[in-house]
Amino acid sequence: MKVTWRLAPPLRSPPRAAIMDSCLFQLIPQDLFVDTVESNNSLASALTCLFANTEDSTARLSPPLVLEAHRFKDHLSAKFEWDLTLTDEGEWDEVGEVGELIVYPLKSGRGVKVTEAEATRYGLAVDLMEDRSFVAAYPSNVLRGKFDSGMFDLTLTLDGSMVTLRCRQGKEEEEKEEVHFDLQDVMKEGKVVEIPDYRYDVKGYDCGDEAAAWLTKVTQATRKGENVRLVYNGDLMRNRRPETVLKLNMHKTYTYRFYKPSDRVTYAESAAYMLASETSLADLNERLLKKVTLDWFRPNLVVRGVRRAYDEDDWAYVRIGDVVLRRVKPCTKHVFKYVDPETGEKSTNQEDRVLRKTLISSRKIKGPKSLEYYFKYTPVFGVHLGIDSCGKVRVGDKVEVARVSSNPRWEL
Length: 412
Description:
9 helices, 3 domains, four-stranded antiparallel sheet
């Protein structure tokens, strides 16, 4: 299906005064036009076409005017969190179907496979079970699987408001295998904690002493003598934006340009979604002596039936029913200190090196010249996605994509 947008005629005599008078928007109450873009009304359409025309190289506009238009657009995006980018996904190519949906309620904990879920602004959700909505933390930082591998033994599930936290069978045979608590009690208690993590400050509702004591016991093998608290997002981290800037070295950074002002995460870091394909995993395993599963890479969306391995590198947009997802960056894996999801055994340093080297040599990632050296030595598997249109997704749903190769504007 070809998507065609009708643009206004190129601006030969652009309304310079209108753009220069953008300071008048400073006087508009922020909540007056809060639903303008979401409602797709005439104002949103007119502004979107205006900015599309100023970015059209055939319009022959003066550079100062184009600069003013960009500033005006940035101002509106910052003030009202509007996304005024004209998106033309072009040709949709059916590539397969949804093979698995995985929610990770506990950051760095084990995933929970579901047959259907809501694709929300913050990730997959099934009722109160939202992706990365809980985090385990010491007083000084968050526990992450790549540094605290014991997190991979933990599973958090919800039945209504009842939370169950389990440890992998046999991890601590002498200790209680699971703990339960009611999320309504947590919210009623309303004890807010803040953790000054090295990546970002964490805020949330403390889930109580029983959960904390249990977590402290089952994670003692990695950091002895420190108390671990379980923290729930609630509504305290809803305005957090993903990390969009890549630090290449002490003096150089790169900003990924396909993030939008509307993108949000709770306790995730780079994006609300990660997608991978079964075909890419099969290709990787053909190159490895010790086979791995997709659980090693922790995707939310697994696509089945893709014809070519690593085809997802070429997907600018992904459409599943009413849901439209947008590629923001490749999913990079800097550190491999993984635990076999089936056995709970740690991979050896040699296995980590082999996996890393194999991923790097599997294919060349296309990107800007400034990232050539970075991708040459950084393993990549899967893609990180933001969301443009929310809705329900189900295992078995058709997956369609718009390709980067069909439109140079979508290249990293």
